[in-house]
Amino acid sequence: MIKKGFSLLQTSSKTGKLTPIHIHVKGKGGSARYELEPEIKLTDSKGLKTKELRQIEKLISQRRGQLVAAWHQYFKE
Fold first, then answer.
1. d(Cα 2, Cα 57) in Å, to the nearest integer?
2. Pairing of β 30-35 and β 22-27
3. Where in the chain are the domains?
4. What rounded mean pLDDT belongs to the chain?
5. Residues 57, 75, 71: CA angle, nearest 5 degrees
6. What is the dihedral sign for C-alpha 25, 21, 11, 43?
7. What is the dihedral of CA 45, 64, 16, 12, to 10 degrees?
8. pLDDT, tens digit, 9 for 90 and up, residues 14-46
9. pTM: predicted TM-score of the whole model, two decimal places
């Protein structure tokens, strides 16, 4: 759980090398998916308001290095 009531989730079917580095976000009103490289990019969103998406992107930006490192560690890249 992170600030503002959003959860960041790294999910996997062990196919990390086949998909771009990304994160799923769940909130009270919906969910979103952001790619983390080469830049942070919203790729899917359901039920979240524009203001919430901006807050999420800011939070991801603050933790991007940690999230990318966790992805590489998990997939042993």
1. 12
2. antiparallel
3. 3-75
4. 84
5. 15
6. positive
7. -60
8. 555 678 899 999 988 899 999 999 999 999 999
9. 0.82
